[in-house]
Write a structure and sequence with these properties.
two-stranded antiparallel sheet, globular
């Protein structure tokens, strides 16, 4: 339980470092903090290779998602008119978020409907907070929040599924087929 609380706190520390760092003109601050937090997270894992794979894959997926949303005009990066490529501080947010999938969000395993609802609410709320801090803006606030809700409603359960696919070892015993018993004549 304590490990989940620490993981939850580390996520928010990384989130604030990335968003506030970018808002204050220190865009590298957040990625450095996240790198340290992810390394500390990995040290505590029993299967570091699988956890690192999950974190890197989620970081790549998240960067594509946010680059696509910025390119479509769902949100815009403040101080970078016309820029749509996901900046390192935002990619770092995806990396630290990925560390919660086997940590503080591990209780969502198999609860895809709950993950959908959580994503639809918490995803747009996170971006709204970033708007309030001043690192992104919503060109069309209502449409932006609706689009983010839809994307995150699909993303969170998708990432829970991905986590299960990448971090659950394949059972060895079930890979060997057992011969069928012969049928008895009637």
């Amino acid at each position: 339980m304590l490990a989940r609380v620490i993981n939850f706190a580390a996520f928010y520390l990384g989130w604030f470092a990335c968003v506030v760092g970018a808002a204050r003109g220190w865009p590298a601050f957040g990625p450095v903090v996240v790198a340290v937090l992810v390394l500390l997270h990995l040290v505590q894992q029993t299967d570091r290779g699988r956890e690192l794979t999950l974190i890197l894959v989620v970081g790549a997926i998240g960067s594509v998602i946010d680059t696509s949303q910025a390119a479509l005009g769902v949100f815009a990066f403040v101080g970078a008119p016309g820029a749509w490529l996901c900046p390192p501080w935002l990619t770092s947010l995806w990396l630290i978020f990925a560390s919660t999938l086997n940590g503080s969000m591990s209780w969502l395993a198999g609860r895809y409907l709950l993950a959908t609802a959580l994503g639809a609410i918490s995803g747009p709320f996170s971006y709204y907070c970033a708007v309030r801090i001043g690192v992104i803006e919503f060109p069309h606030p209502t449409l932006s929040v609706a689009a983010l809700a839809l994307v995150w409603a699909a993303t969170v359960p998708g990432l829970i599924w991905l986590r299960d696919a990448l971090t659950t070892p394949a059972p060895i015993a079930s890979a060997v087929r057992q011969p069928r018993a012969p049928r008895s004549p009637r």
